Protein backbone atom coordinates (compact mmCIF):
# COMPACT_ATOMS: atom_id res chain seq x y z
CA UNK A 1 0.00 0.00 0.00
CA UNK A 2 1.21 3.53 -0.80
CA UNK A 3 1.82 5.00 2.65
CA UNK A 4 1.68 8.63 1.36
CA UNK A 5 -1.82 8.14 -0.01
CA UNK A 6 -3.07 6.33 3.05
CA UNK A 7 -1.57 9.02 5.29
CA UNK A 8 -3.18 11.74 3.15
CA UNK A 9 -6.51 9.89 3.29
CA UNK A 10 -6.23 9.56 7.06
CA UNK A 11 -5.40 13.28 7.43
CA UNK A 12 -8.44 14.11 5.29
CA UNK A 13 -10.67 11.97 7.46
CA UNK A 14 -9.31 13.56 10.64
CA UNK A 15 -9.81 17.08 9.27
CA UNK A 16 -13.42 16.25 8.39
CA UNK A 17 -13.95 14.80 11.85
CA UNK A 18 -12.51 17.85 13.62
CA UNK A 19 -14.58 20.18 11.41
CA UNK A 20 -17.79 18.29 12.14
CA UNK A 21 -17.07 18.13 15.87
CA UNK A 22 -17.04 21.93 16.13
CA UNK A 23 -20.71 21.86 15.10
CA UNK A 24 -21.74 20.16 18.31
CA UNK A 25 -20.29 22.69 20.76
CA UNK A 26 -23.37 24.35 22.29
CA UNK A 27 -23.17 28.02 23.28
CA UNK A 28 -24.76 28.35 26.72
CA UNK A 29 -23.86 26.16 29.64
CA UNK A 30 -21.20 23.95 28.14
CA UNK A 31 -17.49 24.42 27.83
CA UNK A 32 -14.30 22.88 26.62
CA UNK A 33 -11.60 21.17 28.60
CA UNK A 34 -9.37 24.26 28.59
CA UNK A 35 -12.06 26.48 30.07
CA UNK A 36 -11.82 24.74 33.44
CA UNK A 37 -8.04 24.89 33.40
CA UNK A 38 -6.74 27.83 35.51
CA UNK A 39 -3.53 28.05 33.47
CA UNK A 40 -5.48 29.37 30.48
CA UNK A 41 -6.35 32.49 32.53
CA UNK A 42 -9.88 32.52 31.17
CA UNK A 43 -12.48 34.20 33.37
CA UNK A 44 -15.40 31.82 33.22
CA UNK A 45 -18.76 33.52 33.74
CA UNK A 46 -20.65 31.09 31.51
CA UNK A 47 -21.51 28.02 33.60
CA UNK A 48 -23.43 29.36 36.62
CA UNK A 49 -20.94 27.62 38.88
CA UNK A 50 -19.95 28.72 42.38
CA UNK A 51 -16.52 30.45 42.04
CA UNK A 52 -15.67 29.66 45.70
CA UNK A 53 -16.22 25.91 45.63
CA UNK A 54 -15.55 23.15 46.49
CA UNK A 55 -15.56 24.04 50.18
CA UNK A 56 -12.47 23.35 52.27
CA UNK A 57 -14.26 20.48 54.02
CA UNK A 58 -15.26 18.99 50.66
CA UNK A 59 -11.66 19.21 49.41
CA UNK A 60 -10.40 17.33 52.47
CA UNK A 61 -13.07 14.64 52.04
CA UNK A 62 -12.21 14.31 48.33
CA UNK A 63 -8.53 13.77 49.17
CA UNK A 64 -9.40 11.06 51.71
CA UNK A 65 -11.72 9.31 49.26
CA UNK A 66 -9.12 9.06 46.48
CA UNK A 67 -7.47 5.96 47.96
CA UNK A 68 -10.85 4.19 47.75
CA UNK A 69 -10.95 4.78 44.01
CA UNK A 70 -10.47 1.07 43.33
CA UNK A 71 -13.76 0.18 45.07
CA UNK A 72 -17.38 0.47 43.97
CA UNK A 73 -19.14 3.10 46.08
CA UNK A 74 -22.40 1.24 46.82
CA UNK A 75 -22.30 1.66 50.62
CA UNK A 76 -21.12 5.28 50.35
CA UNK A 77 -23.96 6.08 47.91
CA UNK A 78 -26.48 4.67 50.41
CA UNK A 79 -24.96 6.81 53.17
CA UNK A 80 -25.30 9.96 51.03
CA UNK A 81 -28.83 8.91 50.11
CA UNK A 82 -29.85 8.68 53.77
CA UNK A 83 -28.01 11.85 54.82
CA UNK A 84 -29.68 13.84 52.04
CA UNK A 85 -33.15 12.41 52.72
CA UNK A 86 -32.79 13.46 56.36
CA UNK A 87 -31.61 16.94 55.44
CA UNK A 88 -34.48 17.41 52.97
CA UNK A 89 -37.06 15.97 55.41
CA UNK A 90 -38.13 13.31 52.93
CA UNK A 91 -38.29 9.56 53.26
CA UNK A 92 -35.35 7.74 51.67
CA UNK A 93 -37.88 6.04 49.35
CA UNK A 94 -38.71 9.49 47.96
CA UNK A 95 -35.22 10.18 46.64
CA UNK A 96 -33.05 9.24 43.67
CA UNK A 97 -29.43 10.29 43.17
CA UNK A 98 -27.82 10.91 39.80
CA UNK A 99 -24.51 11.73 38.23
CA UNK A 100 -25.48 15.39 37.95
CA UNK A 101 -29.10 16.46 37.76
CA UNK A 102 -28.75 16.32 33.97
CA UNK A 103 -28.54 12.53 34.23
CA UNK A 104 -31.88 12.61 36.05
CA UNK A 105 -33.34 14.98 33.45
CA UNK A 106 -32.20 12.45 30.83
CA UNK A 107 -33.91 9.67 32.78
CA UNK A 108 -37.11 11.76 32.88
CA UNK A 109 -36.85 12.44 29.13
CA UNK A 110 -36.59 8.70 28.45
CA UNK A 111 -39.55 8.09 30.75
CA UNK A 112 -41.62 10.72 28.88
CA UNK A 113 -40.87 9.07 25.55
CA UNK A 114 -41.51 5.52 26.78
CA UNK A 115 -44.82 6.58 28.37
CA UNK A 116 -45.70 8.75 25.35
CA UNK A 117 -46.16 11.77 27.63
CA UNK A 118 -46.00 15.05 25.71
CA UNK A 119 -43.75 17.60 27.46
CA UNK A 120 -45.08 21.15 27.81
CA UNK A 121 -42.54 23.81 28.77
CA UNK A 122 -42.09 27.58 28.64
CA UNK A 123 -39.12 29.04 26.78
CA UNK A 124 -36.48 30.35 27.08
CA UNK A 125 -35.43 27.85 29.71
CA UNK A 126 -32.83 25.18 30.42
CA UNK A 127 -34.02 22.90 27.67
CA UNK A 128 -31.94 19.71 27.71
CA UNK A 129 -34.96 17.65 28.82
CA UNK A 130 -37.36 18.80 26.06
CA UNK A 131 -34.50 18.69 23.52
CA UNK A 132 -33.80 15.08 24.33
CA UNK A 133 -37.49 14.18 24.16
CA UNK A 134 -37.53 15.76 20.68
CA UNK A 135 -34.38 13.88 19.64
CA UNK A 136 -35.97 10.61 20.71
CA UNK A 137 -39.11 11.28 18.70
CA UNK A 138 -41.35 12.34 21.59
CA UNK A 139 -43.79 15.25 21.59
CA UNK A 140 -42.95 18.65 23.06
CA UNK A 141 -45.04 21.82 23.32
CA UNK A 142 -42.86 24.89 23.64
CA UNK A 143 -44.65 27.96 24.97
CA UNK A 144 -42.69 31.09 24.10
CA UNK A 145 -42.74 33.77 26.79
CA UNK A 146 -43.13 37.43 25.96
CA UNK A 147 -40.68 40.26 26.65
CA UNK A 148 -40.81 40.12 30.44
CA UNK A 149 -40.02 36.37 30.31
CA UNK A 150 -42.38 35.63 33.22
CA UNK A 151 -44.10 32.24 33.16
CA UNK A 152 -47.68 32.50 31.93
CA UNK A 153 -48.97 29.66 34.10
CA UNK A 154 -52.52 29.96 32.70
CA UNK A 155 -51.30 29.43 29.18
CA UNK A 156 -49.02 26.56 30.20
CA UNK A 157 -51.90 24.93 32.11
CA UNK A 158 -54.28 25.32 29.17
CA UNK A 159 -51.84 23.70 26.76
CA UNK A 160 -51.08 20.84 29.16
CA UNK A 161 -54.79 20.18 29.66
CA UNK A 162 -55.10 19.69 25.89
CA UNK A 163 -52.00 17.43 25.76
CA UNK A 164 -51.65 15.90 29.24
CA UNK A 165 -48.33 14.33 30.16
CA UNK A 166 -45.46 16.29 31.70
CA UNK A 167 -44.95 20.00 32.42
CA UNK A 168 -41.31 21.05 32.92
CA UNK A 169 -40.67 24.26 34.88
CA UNK A 170 -37.33 25.62 36.04
CA UNK A 171 -37.65 27.80 39.15
CA UNK A 172 -35.86 30.19 39.40
CA UNK A 173 -35.50 30.01 35.65
CA UNK A 174 -32.30 29.68 33.64
CA UNK A 175 -31.29 31.75 31.59
CA UNK A 176 -33.50 34.58 32.90
CA UNK A 177 -32.88 34.26 36.66
CA UNK A 178 -36.54 35.10 37.26
CA UNK A 179 -38.38 33.46 40.15
CA UNK A 180 -42.02 32.40 40.04
CA UNK A 181 -43.61 32.72 43.49
CA UNK A 182 -44.08 29.50 45.45
CA UNK A 183 -47.70 30.54 46.07
CA UNK A 184 -48.48 30.80 42.34
CA UNK A 185 -46.64 27.59 41.59
CA UNK A 186 -48.41 25.66 44.35
CA UNK A 187 -51.83 26.73 43.06
CA UNK A 188 -50.77 25.84 39.54
CA UNK A 189 -49.58 22.38 40.63
CA UNK A 190 -52.84 21.66 42.46
CA UNK A 191 -54.83 21.95 39.22
CA UNK A 192 -52.22 20.84 36.68
CA UNK A 193 -51.45 17.57 38.49
CA UNK A 194 -55.07 16.51 37.90
CA UNK A 195 -53.93 15.68 34.34
CA UNK A 196 -50.11 15.92 34.18
CA UNK A 197 -46.89 15.37 36.08
CA UNK A 198 -45.12 18.64 36.98
CA UNK A 199 -41.32 18.51 37.06
CA UNK A 200 -39.82 21.46 38.91
CA UNK A 201 -36.11 21.92 38.31
CA UNK A 202 -34.84 23.67 41.43
CA UNK A 203 -31.16 23.88 40.41
CA UNK A 204 -30.94 27.44 41.82
CA UNK A 205 -33.43 27.17 44.70
CA UNK A 206 -30.77 27.66 47.40
CA UNK A 207 -30.27 31.21 46.10
CA UNK A 208 -33.88 32.09 46.93
CA UNK A 209 -34.36 29.87 49.99
CA UNK A 210 -36.17 26.67 50.93
CA UNK A 211 -39.45 28.55 51.50
CA UNK A 212 -39.74 28.80 47.70
CA UNK A 213 -39.31 25.07 47.14
CA UNK A 214 -42.27 22.82 46.40
CA UNK A 215 -40.56 19.79 47.89
CA UNK A 216 -43.09 19.43 50.71
CA UNK A 217 -45.84 18.82 48.12
CA UNK A 218 -44.34 15.47 47.09
CA UNK A 219 -45.68 13.70 50.21
CA UNK A 220 -49.32 13.95 49.15
CA UNK A 221 -49.03 14.45 45.42
CA UNK A 222 -47.66 11.64 43.24
CA UNK A 223 -47.39 13.93 40.25
CA UNK A 224 -44.83 16.42 41.49
CA UNK A 225 -41.15 15.73 40.78
CA UNK A 226 -38.40 18.00 42.16
CA UNK A 227 -34.93 17.95 40.57
CA UNK A 228 -31.88 19.45 42.33
CA UNK A 229 -28.12 19.63 41.98
CA UNK A 230 -24.84 20.00 43.87
CA UNK A 231 -23.39 21.85 40.85
CA UNK A 232 -24.46 25.35 41.82
CA UNK A 233 -24.18 26.79 45.35
CA UNK A 234 -22.50 23.59 46.63
CA UNK A 235 -19.66 24.26 44.18
CA UNK A 236 -19.34 20.68 42.91
CA UNK A 237 -20.20 20.97 39.19
CA UNK A 238 -17.15 18.96 38.16
CA UNK A 239 -18.00 16.11 40.51
CA UNK A 240 -21.46 15.45 39.00
CA UNK A 241 -24.06 14.93 41.72
CA UNK A 242 -27.76 15.64 41.44
CA UNK A 243 -30.94 14.34 43.05
CA UNK A 244 -34.60 13.98 42.45
CA UNK A 245 -37.44 13.88 44.97
CA UNK A 246 -40.95 12.55 44.40
CA UNK A 247 -43.62 10.36 45.98
CA UNK A 248 -42.35 6.81 46.60
CA UNK A 249 -44.81 5.45 44.00
CA UNK A 250 -43.37 7.79 41.38
CA UNK A 251 -39.79 6.93 42.37
CA UNK A 252 -40.68 3.26 41.81
CA UNK A 253 -41.84 4.09 38.30
CA UNK A 254 -38.53 5.84 37.55
CA UNK A 255 -36.16 3.34 39.16
CA UNK A 256 -36.20 0.80 36.29
CA UNK A 257 -34.63 3.50 34.08
CA UNK A 258 -31.44 3.58 36.17
CA UNK A 259 -28.51 1.44 35.07
CA UNK A 260 -26.85 0.99 38.49
CA UNK A 261 -28.63 0.81 41.80
CA UNK A 262 -25.93 3.12 43.28
CA UNK A 263 -27.17 5.85 40.91
CA UNK A 264 -23.87 6.04 38.93
CA UNK A 265 -22.07 8.24 41.44
CA UNK A 266 -18.31 8.32 42.03
CA UNK A 267 -16.52 7.81 45.34
CA UNK A 268 -15.08 11.35 45.21
CA UNK A 269 -18.41 12.97 44.29
CA UNK A 270 -20.15 11.22 47.18
CA UNK A 271 -17.43 12.23 49.66
CA UNK A 272 -17.61 15.86 48.48
CA UNK A 273 -21.41 15.97 48.68
CA UNK A 274 -21.50 14.45 52.15
CA UNK A 275 -18.91 16.90 53.48
CA UNK A 276 -20.71 19.83 51.82
CA UNK A 277 -24.01 18.92 53.45
CA UNK A 278 -22.20 19.22 56.76
CA UNK A 279 -20.82 22.66 55.90
CA UNK A 280 -23.67 25.20 56.10
CA UNK A 281 -21.16 28.01 56.74
CA UNK A 282 -19.68 27.60 53.26
CA UNK A 283 -23.16 27.75 51.70
CA UNK A 284 -24.16 30.81 53.73
CA UNK A 285 -20.94 32.66 52.86
CA UNK A 286 -21.26 31.78 49.16
CA UNK A 287 -24.86 33.06 49.14
CA UNK A 288 -23.90 36.30 50.90
CA UNK A 289 -20.97 37.03 48.61
CA UNK A 290 -23.08 36.22 45.54
CA UNK A 291 -25.82 38.64 46.60
CA UNK A 292 -23.47 41.51 47.46
CA UNK A 293 -21.46 41.17 44.25
CA UNK A 294 -24.62 40.67 42.13
CA UNK A 295 -26.20 43.85 43.56
CA UNK A 296 -23.03 45.88 42.94
CA UNK A 297 -22.68 44.52 39.39
CA UNK A 298 -26.32 45.33 38.61
CA UNK A 299 -25.87 48.91 39.93
CA UNK A 300 -22.78 49.43 37.78
CA UNK A 301 -24.55 48.04 34.70
CA UNK A 302 -27.54 50.32 35.31
CA UNK A 303 -25.12 53.28 35.47
CA UNK A 304 -23.86 52.19 32.06
CA UNK A 305 -27.44 52.11 30.73
CA UNK A 306 -27.90 48.31 30.89
CA UNK A 307 -30.88 47.04 32.89
CA UNK A 308 -30.65 43.34 33.82
CA UNK A 309 -33.83 41.38 34.61
CA UNK A 310 -34.44 41.05 38.35
CA UNK A 311 -32.37 38.01 39.31
CA UNK A 312 -32.74 35.75 42.32
CA UNK A 313 -29.83 33.55 41.30
CA UNK A 314 -26.05 33.48 40.74
CA UNK A 315 -26.36 34.94 37.25
CA UNK A 316 -27.86 37.97 35.52
CA UNK A 317 -29.62 38.23 32.17
CA UNK A 318 -29.88 41.30 29.99
CA UNK A 319 -30.59 42.49 26.49
CA UNK A 320 -27.27 43.32 24.85
CA UNK A 321 -27.08 46.98 23.79
CA UNK A 322 -26.78 47.51 20.02
CA UNK A 323 -27.39 43.77 19.58
CA UNK A 324 -23.63 43.18 19.65
CA UNK A 325 -22.10 39.71 19.74
CA UNK A 326 -20.92 40.37 23.29
CA UNK A 327 -19.83 36.78 23.93
CA UNK A 328 -17.30 36.96 21.07
CA UNK A 329 -16.09 40.41 22.08
CA UNK A 330 -15.49 39.20 25.64
CA UNK A 331 -13.93 35.95 24.50
CA UNK A 332 -11.25 37.99 22.71
CA UNK A 333 -10.59 39.52 26.16
CA UNK A 334 -10.34 36.04 27.72
CA UNK A 335 -13.76 36.12 29.36
CA UNK A 336 -16.59 33.66 28.77
CA UNK A 337 -20.29 34.45 29.17
CA UNK A 338 -23.50 32.82 27.95
CA UNK A 339 -25.36 34.39 25.05
CA UNK A 340 -28.73 33.52 23.57
CA UNK A 341 -30.56 34.89 20.58
CA UNK A 342 -34.31 35.19 21.08
CA UNK A 343 -36.40 36.51 18.19
CA UNK A 344 -33.38 38.16 16.56
CA UNK A 345 -32.30 39.88 19.79
CA UNK A 346 -29.11 38.92 21.61
CA UNK A 347 -29.29 38.42 25.36
CA UNK A 348 -26.37 37.85 27.73
CA UNK A 349 -26.35 35.52 30.68
CA UNK A 350 -23.47 36.35 33.00
CA UNK A 351 -22.59 34.24 36.03
CA UNK A 352 -21.70 36.20 39.16
CA UNK A 353 -18.01 35.49 39.71
CA UNK A 354 -15.68 36.84 42.38
CA UNK A 355 -15.44 40.58 43.12
CA UNK A 356 -12.26 40.84 41.01
CA UNK A 357 -13.81 38.93 38.10
CA UNK A 358 -16.89 41.16 38.10
CA UNK A 359 -14.73 44.31 38.23
CA UNK A 360 -12.93 43.03 35.13
CA UNK A 361 -16.30 42.32 33.51
CA UNK A 362 -17.50 45.89 34.16
CA UNK A 363 -14.19 47.28 32.82
CA UNK A 364 -14.61 45.26 29.61
CA UNK A 365 -18.22 46.42 29.20
CA UNK A 366 -17.14 50.04 29.76
CA UNK A 367 -14.43 49.68 27.11
CA UNK A 368 -16.69 47.92 24.60
CA UNK A 369 -19.43 50.59 24.78
C1 LIG B 1 -31.80 24.61 35.50
C2 LIG B 1 -30.70 23.62 35.41
N1 LIG B 1 -30.96 22.33 35.62
C3 LIG B 1 -30.01 21.40 35.55
C4 LIG B 1 -28.70 21.74 35.25
C5 LIG B 1 -27.68 20.65 35.12
O1 LIG B 1 -26.90 20.60 36.24
P1 LIG B 1 -26.00 19.34 36.62
O2 LIG B 1 -26.16 18.29 35.59
O3 LIG B 1 -24.62 19.87 36.70
O4 LIG B 1 -26.52 18.90 37.95
C6 LIG B 1 -28.37 23.07 35.02
C7 LIG B 1 -26.99 23.45 34.68
O5 LIG B 1 -26.67 24.56 34.36
C8 LIG B 1 -29.39 24.04 35.10
O6 LIG B 1 -29.15 25.33 34.89
Summarize this structure as a short list of keywords or feature phrases.
seven-stranded mixed sheet; 2 domains; 369 residues; Aspartate Aminotransferase, domain 1; alpha/beta; binds pyridoxal-5'-phosphate; four-stranded mixed sheet; 12 helices; 15% strand
Describe what you observe in this structure:
The chain has 369 residues and is an alpha/beta fold. The protein has 2 domains: 26-53 and 281-368, Aspartate Aminotransferase, domain 1, CATH 3.90.1150; 56-277, Type I PLP-dependent aspartate aminotransferase-like (Major domain) (Aspartate Aminotransferase, domain 2, 3-Layer(aba) Sandwich), CATH 3.40.640.10. The chain contains 12 helices and 11 strands. The chain has helices at residues 3-21, 56-66, 74-87, 101-115, 128-135, 153-162, 182-192, 248-254, 267-277, 280-303, 326-332, 355-368, and strands at 43-45, 95-98, 119-123, 140-144, 166-170, 197-201, 224-229, 242-245, 315-319, 335-342, 345-351. The strands form 2 sheets. It has a 7-stranded mixed sheet, with helices on both faces. A 4-stranded mixed sheet has the order 1-10-11-9. The protein is globular. The termini are far apart. The model is unreliable at 1-30 (pLDDT under 50). Bound molecules: pyridoxal-5'-phosphate. Pyridoxal-5'-phosphate is lined by residues 29, 48, 100-102, 126, 170, 174, 201, 203, 229, 231, 237, 242.
Amino acid sequence: MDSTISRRKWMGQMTALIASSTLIVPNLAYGTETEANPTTNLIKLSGNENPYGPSQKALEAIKKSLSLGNRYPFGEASALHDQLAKQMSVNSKQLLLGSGSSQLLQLLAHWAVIQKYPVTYPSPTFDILPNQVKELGGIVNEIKMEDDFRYDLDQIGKQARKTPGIIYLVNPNNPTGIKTSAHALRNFCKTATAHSYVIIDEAYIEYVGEQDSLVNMIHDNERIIIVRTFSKVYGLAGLRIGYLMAHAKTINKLKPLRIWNNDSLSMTGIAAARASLDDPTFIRESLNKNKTIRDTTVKKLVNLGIQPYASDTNFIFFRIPENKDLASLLKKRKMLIGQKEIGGINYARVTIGTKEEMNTFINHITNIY
